[in-house]
Design goal:
It comes from Indicator maculatus (spotted honeyguide). One of its GO terms (molecular function) is hydrolase activity. InterPro entries: AB_hydrolase_3, AB_hydrolase_fold, GDXG_lipolytic_enzyme. This is ADCL4 protein. Keywords: Hydrolase. By secondary structure, the protein is mainly α. It folds into two domains: about 90 residues, no CATH class; about 50 residues, no CATH class. It is about 45% helix and about 5% strand. The protein has seven helices and two strands; from the N terminus they run ααβαβαααα. Strands 1-2 form a two-stranded parallel ribbon. The radius of gyration is 18 Å and the shape is elongated. The chain starts with a helix and ends in a 7-residue tail after the last helix.
């Protein structure tokens, strides 16, 4: 689905673009997609001279679920001393949290396709475990125990 834009970016920027075809939910539950992206990135970085790429200029990028995967790969590789450091990550409307679906961005865009609030919750559940039967609880926020909600309030809150 992203081949055309990847080719456009590669040609227009005179860049090497590696697009990972990762396994998709719900058939392949977490962490399948993450492992596919991480393994592909590690392979690329370990063989970077074969591709003629400057190791100081590697960026990971993704949109939507791919943005989540790019962020997770970036975090995992941040502590690796056996690989070149990533220069940056580019995240376009990434799915980064499933703690609170009532944050301002969800409220402001609750009726904006294709990422309706309900769709975001549904896709998060599909990614995690393939079961959307408790979607209403997730939308209401009752899927997070009160003590955890307090603990994560510092990072996930309307402010």
């Amino acid at each position: 689905s992203h081949e055309t834009i990847c080719r456009y970016i590669a040609k227009g920027g005179k860049l090497v673009v590696v697009s990972v075809g990762y396994r998709l939910a719900p058939e392949h539950k977490y962490p399948a997609a993450y492992e596919d992206c991480l393994n592909a990135t590690i392979h690329f970085m370990k063989n970077i001279e074969h591709y003629g790429v400057d190791p100081a200029n590697v960026i990971v990028c993704g949109d939507s679920a791919g943005g989540n995967l790019a962020a997770a790969v970036s975090q995992t590789l941040a502590g690796r001393s056996d690989l070149p450091r990533l220069r940056a990550q580019i995240l376009m409307y990434p799915g980064l949290q499933a703690v609170d679906f009532d944050l301002p961005s969800y409220q402001q865009n609750r009726g904006v396709p294709p990422l309706l609030r309900e769709h975001s919750a549904f896709f998060a559940l599909q990614y995690l475990n393939g079961d959307a039967s408790n979607m209403q609880e997730v939308l209401e926020g009752s899927h997070i125990p009160p003590d955890r909600r307090v603990k994560y309030r510092e990072w996930v809150n309307p402010d």
